[in-house]
Amino acid sequence: MTIMKLKNILFVVFLCMVSGCLSASINKSFVELKNCNIYEGKWVYDESFPLFDSSKCSAIRGQFNCLKYGRPDHQYLKYRWQPNACNLPKFDTRDFLARMKGKHIMFVGDSVSENHGQSLICLLNQAGAPAKVVEAVSGLTPNNSVTNVKLEAHGITISILLSHYLVDIENEKIGRVLKLDSIKDGNTWKQADVLIFNTWLWWYRKGPKQPWDYIESEGKIVKDMDRMEAFRRALTTWKNWADSNLNPSKTKVFFQGISPMHYHGEDWNVQGVKDCSRETTPLEGSTYPAGEPLALKVLKSVLYRKTSSSSMPVSLLDITTLSQLRKDGHPSKYNNLGGMDCTHWCLAGVPDTWNQLLYTELLR
User: Fold this and answer.
1) Most CB within 10 Å of its CB: which of 132, 145, 313, 362?
2) What is the pLDDT of residue 102?
3) pTM score, two decimals?
Protein backbone atom coordinates (compact mmCIF):
# COMPACT_ATOMS: atom_id res chain seq x y z
CA MET A 1 0.00 0.00 0.00
CA THR A 2 1.39 3.37 -0.99
CA ILE A 3 1.84 6.16 1.56
CA MET A 4 -0.67 8.26 -0.38
CA LYS A 5 -3.39 5.57 -0.15
CA LEU A 6 -2.69 5.12 3.56
CA LYS A 7 -3.08 8.86 4.11
CA ASN A 8 -6.41 8.83 2.24
CA ILE A 9 -7.72 5.90 4.32
CA LEU A 10 -6.67 7.58 7.55
CA PHE A 11 -8.33 10.83 6.43
CA VAL A 12 -11.65 9.04 5.71
CA VAL A 13 -11.51 7.26 9.08
CA PHE A 14 -10.82 10.61 10.73
CA LEU A 15 -13.83 12.23 9.02
CA CYS A 16 -16.10 9.39 10.09
CA MET A 17 -14.90 9.64 13.66
CA VAL A 18 -15.42 13.41 13.72
CA SER A 19 -18.85 13.13 12.10
CA GLY A 20 -19.90 10.51 14.62
CA CYS A 21 -18.68 12.58 17.52
CA LEU A 22 -20.46 15.67 16.20
CA SER A 23 -23.66 13.70 15.66
CA ALA A 24 -23.48 12.26 19.17
CA SER A 25 -22.79 15.72 20.59
CA ILE A 26 -25.73 17.24 18.73
CA ASN A 27 -28.03 14.41 19.84
CA LYS A 28 -26.90 14.80 23.44
CA SER A 29 -27.52 18.57 23.33
CA PHE A 30 -30.99 17.99 21.86
CA VAL A 31 -31.88 15.45 24.56
CA GLU A 32 -30.63 17.80 27.26
CA LEU A 33 -32.67 20.65 25.80
CA LYS A 34 -35.80 18.53 25.44
CA ASN A 35 -35.59 17.45 29.09
CA CYS A 36 -34.56 20.85 30.44
CA ASN A 37 -36.87 23.23 32.27
CA ILE A 38 -35.88 26.35 30.35
CA TYR A 39 -37.99 28.56 32.63
CA GLU A 40 -35.94 27.91 35.78
CA GLY A 41 -32.76 29.93 35.86
CA LYS A 42 -31.35 33.41 36.40
CA TRP A 43 -30.37 36.54 34.49
CA VAL A 44 -26.68 36.94 33.68
CA TYR A 45 -24.86 39.94 32.29
CA ASP A 46 -23.86 39.50 28.64
CA GLU A 47 -22.11 42.18 26.57
CA SER A 48 -23.36 40.61 23.32
CA PHE A 49 -26.92 41.73 24.13
CA PRO A 50 -29.34 43.22 23.08
CA LEU A 51 -30.47 41.00 20.22
CA PHE A 52 -31.37 43.97 17.99
CA ASP A 53 -30.89 47.72 17.68
CA SER A 54 -34.20 49.43 18.48
CA SER A 55 -33.24 52.50 16.41
CA LYS A 56 -33.30 50.31 13.29
CA CYS A 57 -36.76 48.81 13.86
CA SER A 58 -39.69 50.99 12.84
CA ALA A 59 -42.21 48.44 14.14
CA ILE A 60 -41.82 49.50 17.79
CA ARG A 61 -44.76 51.34 19.28
CA GLY A 62 -43.77 54.56 21.06
CA GLN A 63 -44.98 53.18 24.37
CA PHE A 64 -42.25 50.50 24.24
CA ASN A 65 -39.44 52.52 22.62
CA CYS A 66 -37.58 53.49 25.78
CA LEU A 67 -34.30 54.65 24.24
CA LYS A 68 -36.08 56.88 21.72
CA TYR A 69 -37.89 58.59 24.58
CA GLY A 70 -34.81 59.25 26.62
CA ARG A 71 -34.07 56.35 28.95
CA PRO A 72 -30.53 57.22 30.12
CA ASP A 73 -29.38 53.84 31.51
CA HIS A 74 -28.58 51.00 29.11
CA GLN A 75 -27.55 48.19 31.44
CA TYR A 76 -31.05 46.68 31.34
CA LEU A 77 -30.32 45.73 27.72
CA LYS A 78 -27.35 43.54 28.66
CA TYR A 79 -28.98 40.57 30.38
CA ARG A 80 -29.40 37.06 29.05
CA TRP A 81 -31.64 34.34 30.50
CA GLN A 82 -29.58 31.35 31.67
CA PRO A 83 -31.53 28.16 32.55
CA ASN A 84 -30.15 26.16 35.46
CA ALA A 85 -29.84 22.81 33.68
CA CYS A 86 -28.97 23.67 30.06
CA ASN A 87 -28.01 26.45 27.69
CA LEU A 88 -30.73 28.28 25.83
CA PRO A 89 -30.17 28.23 22.06
CA LYS A 90 -29.43 31.61 20.54
CA PHE A 91 -32.27 33.08 18.54
CA ASP A 92 -31.17 32.02 15.07
CA THR A 93 -33.07 34.39 12.80
CA ARG A 94 -32.19 32.61 9.57
CA ASP A 95 -33.23 29.24 10.95
CA PHE A 96 -36.46 30.72 12.33
CA LEU A 97 -37.26 32.25 8.94
CA ALA A 98 -36.56 28.92 7.22
CA ARG A 99 -38.75 26.96 9.66
CA MET A 100 -41.60 29.44 9.37
CA LYS A 101 -41.38 29.93 5.59
CA GLY A 102 -44.87 30.28 4.16
CA LYS A 103 -46.51 30.18 7.59
CA HIS A 104 -48.80 32.49 9.55
CA ILE A 105 -47.87 33.44 13.14
CA MET A 106 -50.56 35.13 15.22
CA PHE A 107 -50.37 36.84 18.62
CA VAL A 108 -53.81 37.13 20.24
CA GLY A 109 -54.37 39.13 23.41
CA ASP A 110 -53.96 42.54 24.99
CA SER A 111 -51.18 45.11 24.51
CA VAL A 112 -48.63 42.76 26.10
CA SER A 113 -49.20 40.50 23.07
CA GLU A 114 -48.42 43.53 20.92
CA ASN A 115 -45.23 43.99 22.97
CA HIS A 116 -44.33 40.36 22.29
CA GLY A 117 -45.21 40.43 18.59
CA GLN A 118 -43.31 43.63 17.85
CA SER A 119 -40.22 42.11 19.46
CA LEU A 120 -40.42 39.16 17.04
CA ILE A 121 -40.83 41.49 14.05
CA CYS A 122 -37.72 43.42 15.12
CA LEU A 123 -35.70 40.23 15.66
CA LEU A 124 -36.51 39.03 12.15
CA ASN A 125 -36.05 42.47 10.62
CA GLN A 126 -32.43 42.47 11.80
CA ALA A 127 -31.77 39.41 9.65
CA GLY A 128 -32.61 41.24 6.46
CA ALA A 129 -36.30 40.32 6.50
CA PRO A 130 -37.97 43.73 6.10
CA ALA A 131 -41.44 43.87 7.60
CA LYS A 132 -44.33 45.54 5.79
CA VAL A 133 -47.64 46.37 7.45
CA VAL A 134 -50.17 45.26 4.84
CA GLU A 135 -53.42 45.87 6.68
CA ALA A 136 -54.95 46.89 9.98
CA VAL A 137 -58.64 45.98 10.25
CA SER A 138 -61.37 45.72 12.87
CA GLY A 139 -62.24 42.37 14.41
CA LEU A 140 -65.64 40.72 14.47
CA THR A 141 -66.47 42.12 17.92
CA PRO A 142 -66.10 45.62 19.42
CA ASN A 143 -62.66 46.59 20.78
CA ASN A 144 -60.90 43.93 18.69
CA SER A 145 -58.59 44.72 15.76
CA VAL A 146 -55.87 42.91 13.83
CA THR A 147 -52.64 44.16 12.28
CA ASN A 148 -51.07 41.95 9.62
CA VAL A 149 -47.36 42.27 8.89
CA LYS A 150 -45.78 40.52 5.89
CA LEU A 151 -42.21 39.31 5.53
CA GLU A 152 -42.72 38.98 1.81
CA ALA A 153 -39.35 37.45 0.90
CA HIS A 154 -40.16 34.48 3.14
CA GLY A 155 -43.92 34.26 2.71
CA ILE A 156 -44.40 34.79 6.45
CA THR A 157 -47.31 36.70 7.96
CA ILE A 158 -47.20 37.92 11.56
CA SER A 159 -50.58 39.06 12.90
CA ILE A 160 -51.23 40.88 16.15
CA LEU A 161 -54.90 40.58 17.08
CA LEU A 162 -56.05 42.81 19.93
CA SER A 163 -58.46 40.88 22.14
CA HIS A 164 -58.35 42.00 25.77
CA TYR A 165 -60.34 39.09 27.18
CA LEU A 166 -60.19 36.46 24.38
CA VAL A 167 -63.95 36.08 24.86
CA ASP A 168 -66.41 38.55 23.32
CA ILE A 169 -67.73 41.96 24.28
CA GLU A 170 -70.96 42.78 22.45
CA ASN A 171 -73.16 45.87 22.35
CA GLU A 172 -76.72 45.06 23.40
CA LYS A 173 -79.71 47.15 24.46
CA ILE A 174 -78.67 47.08 28.10
CA GLY A 175 -75.09 48.10 27.25
CA ARG A 176 -71.76 46.44 26.60
CA VAL A 177 -71.79 42.79 27.68
CA LEU A 178 -68.69 40.69 28.39
CA LYS A 179 -69.72 37.20 27.29
CA LEU A 180 -67.65 34.60 29.12
CA ASP A 181 -69.05 31.73 27.02
CA SER A 182 -68.66 33.26 23.54
CA ILE A 183 -65.79 33.46 21.01
CA LYS A 184 -66.59 34.96 17.60
CA ASP A 185 -63.06 35.75 16.42
CA GLY A 186 -62.19 32.05 16.31
CA ASN A 187 -62.39 31.79 12.53
CA THR A 188 -59.68 34.45 12.30
CA TRP A 189 -57.50 32.56 14.79
CA LYS A 190 -57.87 29.34 12.77
CA GLN A 191 -56.01 30.93 9.86
CA ALA A 192 -52.70 30.74 11.77
CA ASP A 193 -50.10 27.97 11.90
CA VAL A 194 -48.63 29.22 15.18
CA LEU A 195 -50.88 30.86 17.79
CA ILE A 196 -49.62 32.67 20.90
CA PHE A 197 -52.44 33.66 23.27
CA ASN A 198 -52.47 35.97 26.28
CA THR A 199 -54.99 37.64 28.54
CA TRP A 200 -54.82 39.10 32.03
CA LEU A 201 -54.04 42.81 31.99
CA TRP A 202 -57.67 43.99 31.75
CA TRP A 203 -59.47 41.62 34.09
CA TYR A 204 -59.40 43.86 37.19
CA ARG A 205 -60.03 47.18 35.44
CA LYS A 206 -62.96 49.19 36.79
CA GLY A 207 -64.52 52.59 36.21
CA PRO A 208 -63.88 54.47 32.95
CA LYS A 209 -61.14 51.99 31.91
CA GLN A 210 -63.53 49.03 32.05
CA PRO A 211 -64.80 48.40 28.48
CA TRP A 212 -67.97 46.51 29.48
CA ASP A 213 -71.09 47.17 31.59
CA TYR A 214 -72.35 43.65 32.32
CA ILE A 215 -71.08 40.06 32.41
CA GLU A 216 -72.95 37.16 30.86
CA SER A 217 -72.10 33.61 31.93
CA GLU A 218 -74.06 30.37 31.73
CA GLY A 219 -77.13 32.24 30.44
CA LYS A 220 -77.19 34.75 33.30
CA ILE A 221 -76.38 38.46 33.06
CA VAL A 222 -74.92 40.18 36.14
CA LYS A 223 -73.50 43.61 36.83
CA ASP A 224 -70.24 42.14 38.09
CA MET A 225 -68.73 39.01 39.64
CA ASP A 226 -65.50 37.79 41.21
CA ARG A 227 -62.94 38.76 38.59
CA MET A 228 -60.67 35.76 39.12
CA GLU A 229 -63.63 33.44 38.64
CA ALA A 230 -64.59 35.37 35.49
CA PHE A 231 -60.99 34.95 34.28
CA ARG A 232 -61.19 31.19 34.92
CA ARG A 233 -64.48 30.83 33.06
CA ALA A 234 -63.18 32.78 30.05
CA LEU A 235 -60.02 30.66 29.92
CA THR A 236 -62.17 27.51 30.08
CA THR A 237 -64.23 28.78 27.14
CA TRP A 238 -61.03 29.50 25.20
CA LYS A 239 -59.54 26.05 25.97
CA ASN A 240 -62.79 24.30 24.98
CA TRP A 241 -62.75 26.28 21.73
CA ALA A 242 -59.14 25.21 21.04
CA ASP A 243 -59.98 21.56 21.77
CA SER A 244 -62.93 21.63 19.37
CA ASN A 245 -61.55 23.76 16.55
CA LEU A 246 -57.79 23.31 16.18
CA ASN A 247 -55.87 20.46 14.60
CA PRO A 248 -52.59 19.62 16.39
CA SER A 249 -51.08 18.33 13.14
CA LYS A 250 -51.54 21.78 11.56
CA THR A 251 -51.36 24.31 14.38
CA LYS A 252 -48.96 24.88 17.27
CA VAL A 253 -50.57 26.68 20.21
CA PHE A 254 -48.87 28.56 23.04
CA PHE A 255 -50.16 30.54 25.99
CA GLN A 256 -47.86 33.37 26.98
CA GLY A 257 -48.26 33.08 30.74
CA ILE A 258 -48.88 36.02 33.07
CA SER A 259 -46.75 39.09 32.44
CA PRO A 260 -46.05 40.79 35.79
CA MET A 261 -46.26 44.45 36.79
CA HIS A 262 -43.84 46.23 39.16
CA TYR A 263 -45.66 48.95 41.10
CA HIS A 264 -45.19 47.62 44.64
CA GLY A 265 -41.65 47.38 46.00
CA GLU A 266 -42.73 45.05 48.78
CA ASP A 267 -43.21 42.39 46.07
CA TRP A 268 -39.41 42.31 45.72
CA ASN A 269 -38.72 43.04 49.42
CA VAL A 270 -38.14 46.80 49.14
CA GLN A 271 -40.42 48.96 51.24
CA GLY A 272 -41.74 52.34 50.14
CA VAL A 273 -41.20 51.88 46.41
CA LYS A 274 -44.32 52.64 44.37
CA ASP A 275 -43.13 52.07 40.81
CA CYS A 276 -40.22 50.89 38.64
CA SER A 277 -38.74 54.32 37.82
CA ARG A 278 -35.43 53.83 39.67
CA GLU A 279 -34.87 50.17 38.77
CA THR A 280 -31.82 49.52 36.60
CA THR A 281 -30.85 45.89 37.31
CA PRO A 282 -32.70 42.54 37.64
CA LEU A 283 -33.19 40.71 40.91
CA GLU A 284 -30.47 38.16 41.56
CA GLY A 285 -31.25 34.47 41.82
CA SER A 286 -34.13 32.37 40.54
CA THR A 287 -37.05 33.16 42.83
CA TYR A 288 -39.32 36.17 43.28
CA PRO A 289 -40.20 37.12 46.85
CA ALA A 290 -43.93 37.60 46.13
CA GLY A 291 -44.13 34.11 44.65
CA GLU A 292 -46.39 32.77 41.92
CA PRO A 293 -49.43 34.98 41.21
CA LEU A 294 -52.88 33.49 41.65
CA ALA A 295 -53.69 34.23 38.00
CA LEU A 296 -50.91 31.86 36.89
CA LYS A 297 -52.26 29.11 39.16
CA VAL A 298 -55.70 29.56 37.59
CA LEU A 299 -54.20 29.49 34.10
CA LYS A 300 -52.27 26.28 34.83
CA SER A 301 -55.39 24.64 36.29
CA VAL A 302 -57.22 25.26 33.01
CA LEU A 303 -54.33 24.27 30.73
CA TYR A 304 -53.51 21.09 32.63
CA ARG A 305 -57.00 19.88 33.53
CA LYS A 306 -57.80 16.33 32.47
CA THR A 307 -59.77 16.28 29.23
CA SER A 308 -60.49 13.84 26.44
CA SER A 309 -57.67 12.35 24.40
CA SER A 310 -58.70 14.62 21.51
CA SER A 311 -57.85 17.81 23.40
CA MET A 312 -55.56 20.35 21.73
CA PRO A 313 -52.04 20.43 23.22
CA VAL A 314 -51.15 23.93 24.46
CA SER A 315 -47.60 24.77 25.50
CA LEU A 316 -47.21 27.25 28.32
CA LEU A 317 -44.58 29.91 27.64
CA ASP A 318 -43.99 30.20 31.36
CA ILE A 319 -42.49 33.69 31.31
CA THR A 320 -43.90 34.81 34.67
CA THR A 321 -41.06 34.19 37.13
CA LEU A 322 -38.24 35.20 34.80
CA SER A 323 -40.15 38.42 34.01
CA GLN A 324 -40.91 39.06 37.69
CA LEU A 325 -37.14 39.22 38.21
CA ARG A 326 -36.91 42.04 35.64
CA LYS A 327 -38.20 45.01 37.63
CA ASP A 328 -35.75 47.05 35.52
CA GLY A 329 -37.26 46.14 32.15
CA HIS A 330 -40.27 48.48 31.95
CA PRO A 331 -40.55 51.82 30.12
CA SER A 332 -41.38 53.70 33.35
CA LYS A 333 -41.64 57.37 32.21
CA TYR A 334 -39.63 56.83 29.02
CA ASN A 335 -42.49 56.43 26.56
CA ASN A 336 -44.59 58.51 24.20
CA LEU A 337 -47.59 58.67 26.55
CA GLY A 338 -45.81 60.48 29.36
CA GLY A 339 -47.22 58.33 32.18
CA MET A 340 -45.55 55.81 34.48
CA ASP A 341 -45.60 52.40 32.78
CA CYS A 342 -44.41 49.46 34.87
CA THR A 343 -46.69 47.07 32.98
CA HIS A 344 -45.28 46.89 29.45
CA TRP A 345 -41.67 46.22 28.47
CA CYS A 346 -38.94 48.15 26.71
CA LEU A 347 -37.95 47.01 23.22
CA ALA A 348 -35.30 45.82 22.87
CA GLY A 349 -35.66 44.02 26.18
CA VAL A 350 -37.40 41.24 28.08
CA PRO A 351 -39.88 40.19 25.31
CA ASP A 352 -36.87 39.29 23.14
CA THR A 353 -36.17 36.52 25.65
CA TRP A 354 -39.82 35.43 25.41
CA ASN A 355 -39.22 34.98 21.68
CA GLN A 356 -35.98 33.13 22.34
CA LEU A 357 -38.02 30.76 24.52
CA LEU A 358 -40.69 30.51 21.79
CA TYR A 359 -37.97 29.60 19.28
CA THR A 360 -36.61 26.96 21.69
CA GLU A 361 -40.08 25.45 22.15
CA LEU A 362 -40.47 25.22 18.37
CA LEU A 363 -37.15 23.36 18.21
CA ARG A 364 -38.06 20.69 20.75
Assistant:
1) 362
2) 96
3) 0.90
